[in-house]
Design a protein that fits this description.
The protein is α+β, with helices and mostly antiparallel strands. It has two domains: 16-281, Aminohydrolase, N-terminal nucleophile (Ntn) domain (Glutamine Phosphoribosylpyrophosphate, subunit 1, domain 1, 4-Layer Sandwich); 285-347 and 356-469, 3-Layer(aba) Sandwich (Rossmann fold). The two termini are 13 Å apart.
Length: 500
Amino acid sequence: MLIDKRTTDLKPDKPKCHCGVFGITRSENSAIHTYYGLHALQHRGQEAAGIVTGNINSDGKVSFNIHKGMGLVSDVFRNPEVFKSKLIGPATIGHNRYSTTGASESTKNIQPFVVQYRMGNLAVAHNGNLTNANVLREKLVEQGAIFQTSSDTEVVLHLIARSRKENQWEQVLDALNKIEGAYSLVILTDNSLYAARDPFGFRPLSLGKLNGSFVVASETSAFDINSAEFIRDIEPGELLEISYDARNISELKSYKIVENVPDPKHCIFEYIYFSRPDSKIFGANVDKLRRKLGKVLATHHPVRDPEDEKVIVISVPDSSNTAAIGYQNQLEKIGINSKLEIGLIRSHYIGRTFIIPGQLKREVGVKVKFNTVKGVLENKTIVLIDDSIVRGTTSKQLVNLIREANPKSIHLRISSPPILFPCYYGMDFPSKEELIANRFNGNIEEIRRYLGVDSLEYMTIDEMLEAMVDHAPTDFCTACFSGNYPTKINTKFKKEEYDH
C-alpha cells in the first residue's frame, strides 16, 4: 500500500475500508441529510468526500450538481452556502473515500462520479472492489471508451451507458451482471435512486425511511444521525429502484441481479473492526457481536495472575473497547479476578496532515497517539485487547510504551485470527510481505518475541465464527485469515491498480 505523502509518517497499522455510501430521495433537505450521513460514515473513508444532487427544474428537466474535495466531510463542506445555492434537489447520493494508490491526491478519483449519456444524467458511488475490473476496462478501451479516472468504479458507468437495453433499470441490471467481486452501489439517475449489493453480500448496505423519504447507507449509524427508521438490509444480489420523479407513482421496486443467489459471504472484518459499534449490519448489532468476540476470546484464551491478584484488562482504543468489555465480563464469569480499566489514552486531535519530523520519529513514535495511565498499569498483570495486528509496528510501540509504566507482565489477546492473505473485496491491507503473521510464517511465538509481550494469543477461525451467534458459520468471508476466497480471483487482478 502506498501512503499519501501528506499524511502522518507513522504507517497505519490497521486495515482500511475503501469507503462509505449514502443516498436519499424525495427530501427537501436531501443534501443536508447526506452531509450528516457521511459524518456518521466518516470512519469508512477519511481522505475525500463528495455529494451529488438531482434537481427537477421548472421546465421538468433534471440537472445534477456536485461538490467534492479532499479531506474530511467537515473540511469539504465547510461553507454552508453550498447547500443553499448548489446542492439543492430532492435526491442525493454521497461518498466517503479512502484510496490505496499514489493517485489519491487526484480529485478526478473522488466519488460520486457523474456523466451524461443518451438517457440523461448518471452518477455512481461504490463501496467494494471489482475483481474483474481490469478485464472489463481493457475491453471497453478497445471499444473506444475513454476513462477519466483510475478507479474500478468508473467501469460501472461505462457499462450502463453502453447497454443496449431500453429501460434504465434493465441497463443497470445489464451492467451488474457483467461485474464481479464486491460492491455496494448507489446510482442516481434523472428519475430514480438505485441501490445494489453483490450476490455474496460482501459489504453492508441498508434501507431506511425518513418521513416520506427512502434512505440507503453503508451502516445504520447514518440513519440514526438523521433520525431515520431502519427498514431492512438490502439483500445480497438485490437491486432496488427508488423513484423520485413525481410522474412515476411507484416508489420502490426490487429486482434480482442473479436468479440463483449464492450463500452469503459477508466480510467478517466489518464486525471485528470496520463498522461502528452502534451500527446494525448484516442483520445484527455490531456491539453485540463485538462483545461476544471478547467473551469467546476470554473463554479460550484467559489470563490469570500467577499470585491470583487482580488482572487488569485494557483495550487499544477505540476499536477494541467493546471486545475488552466482553473479555473482562467473561473472565469474571469463569472465576478470574479481573478489572476493566482505561490504561491507554488516545489523542483524537491528530489531523490527517500531521507529520513527525524525521529526527523525532524514533523518540516520539506512537506517543503522539497514545499515552499510558501509569497508576493503572504499574505492578499489575496487564491483558491488552486488540482487534487485529497488521504490520505489528504500532503493537510493538504500544508494548514498549506500556513497559515504561512498569507492569508486572503484558499479555496480548487478539479478537481475530492472524492475517495472512490479501483482500480483494474492498478492504485494504498492506502487501502480503508486510503482514506480520505472513512475515513470520504464522509462528505465534516468533511474533510474540518481536512484539515483546509475555504472552500472545489470537482467536482461531473456528473461535471467531463461534462468536457470530446471529449467523451461520458459513455466512462469512474469512479469506484474509484462511486464503479461501469465495470467488475466483482473476490472476491479472491487482487491486493497487484501482483507486477508490
